[in-house]
């Protein structure tokens, strides 16, 4: 079992526990902080697991209530958040109580947003049940719901603890493992090439304990250095400028969209910096079964969605590009760079 800690100044703000059977520590976490009441948020695919945790906590004297949100991105709506707020009102939830979010990235995005805003902030613990959630969405305190664009309404609110049980991750379907591989490979491209090499050698049969620990370590280090994305933390958005636009306009999954986005931004990196790893990047994404083209996406709609990207500033559209593997840069992308990105993935 390994513990990763996000720090702010000299204060630990979030602990990520990675290992096998780590969910057995959930009751210890609740008791160690003297929480007497817990609300567990889940979605239909994780409802049975959430019920198991509820029973474990109830057996040791914790008052537990549960609420099931819609599946996937359908949960990430302000109307759904309002429904959860009202449920918390009905349970008599207080600042001395705890929210536990059991699920993948969509669930932890919403659970964190609720926790960060209800009563101006209450404690939250995540049990990350998807590879994508484990290596990305659950870590770093970004929460959000969708409003016209992806995650345009949100707040930084770090969970007290994130639990990542590799026994659960190992049992995921190949589809779910591919989706998570996109975000894991992203951390490899921007910092830790051992992750890329592992996928090149083993495809989806990589050692997920190693992959998750390495990906988490990359993200924890970057977040600790740049707590609220004022600078370097933006590099974690590699592939997301184009990727989020594809996800929003085509309905592709987040992992597939980010994979295509990284191919696009790899091509833009080649045009802008002379990046030479474009083909290697495309090859490893295709090796694990991820798509690398989005010919079904129209250029006009993609560009319109990119105009809503959260990374835009007064200087225009900011994009994360690679000088080389492990050397990402934030640049203001001119139209020729954007066009190179779109052309590379068949968006015309």
- In CATH's first tier, which class of the largest domain applies? Alpha Beta
Give the averaged pLDDT, no decimals: 95
Provide the β-strand percentage band.
15-25%
Structurally, the number of domains stands at 2
Number of strands: 11
Give me the number of helical elements: 14
Give the SSE order as H and E letters: EEHEHEHEHEHEEEHHHHHHHHEEH
Overall form = globular
Poorly predicted spans: none
Largest sheet: 7 strands, mixed
The radius of gyration is 20 Å
* Helical/strand content category: alpha/beta
- In whole angstroms, the N-to-C terminal distance is 48 Å
CATH structural architecture of the largest domain:
3-Layer(aba) Sandwich
Helicity level, as a percent range?
A: 40-55%
Order of strands across the biggest sheet?
A: 1-2-9-6-5-3-4
In the CATH hierarchy, the third-tier topology of the largest domain is known as: Rossmann fold
Can you put this structure into words, describing what you see?
With 348 residues, the chain is an alpha/beta fold. The protein has two domains: 2-172, 3-Layer(aba) Sandwich (Rossmann fold), CATH 3.40.50.1970; 177-344, Dehydroquinate synthase-like - alpha domain (Dehydroquinate synthase-like, alpha domain), CATH 1.20.1090.10. It has 14 helices and eleven strands. It has a seven-stranded mixed sheet with strand order 1-2-9-6-5-3-4, with helices on both faces. A two-stranded antiparallel sheet has the order 7-8. The protein has a two-stranded antiparallel ribbon with strand order 10-11. Helix 4 (105-117) packs across helix 5 (131-137) and helix 11 (254-273) runs antiparallel to helix 12. It starts with a strand and ends with a helix. The mean pLDDT is 95.
